[in-house]
Amino acid sequence: MKIIYLHGFASTGVGPKSDALKLAFGTDNVLTPDLPLDPDAVEKLVDGLVTQTMLETPPPLLFAGTSLGGFWANYFAQQWNAPCVMVNPSLTPSKTMWEKAGQFVPNYKTGVLMPVLKKYAAKFEKREAFLRGNTNSNLLHLFLAKDDNVLPYEQTLAGLPSVASCTVTETGGHIFTSQWDLVVEKIRELIRPR
Questions:
Q1: Which residue of 13, 43, 75, 138 is surrounded by the most CB atoms within 10 Å?
Q2: Does residue 62 sit in helix, strand or coil?
Q3: Which one is the CATH code of 2-191: 3.40.630.10, 3.40.50.300, 3.40.50.1820, 3.40.30.10?
């Protein structure tokens, strides 16, 4: 069993949420890569991790992600036919990239400045179009916080009208750390042998 946790925009794979997953499921079973901003580079990185994982460990494989990482969790779940847990996911990251194009954004954890290029937005648009035509909603498990001040939960519900399960909490905010135990329990349920 492998869980691939995908972090949000301008963050890293190291933090309280990935630590909680490693504590719950074992360090060897949870992969938490640092994702670049370039969607092509993300796809190459994660596909490489999955390919290596499939050689070493038979399924189950599960993707989990928050915010932009939630978008990626859905994307890779559809590519690899694996379940995913999305927490306050971005559904249209191309919009964020267009808004920030030409800027340097600091990584929230390291402070390193990263350029946001216009071509990233176009690359995300292609992946968003793929998901519009190729989403198996049975793979999707959604967590939303009503007090998310970055991505309004109502918009996400409207954008994902059909999912396998949906949990909406009153609190948790965008980063959802205070409700992360719910995510851990859902993952435990999904990877439990049937």
A1: 75
A2: strand
A3: 3.40.50.1820
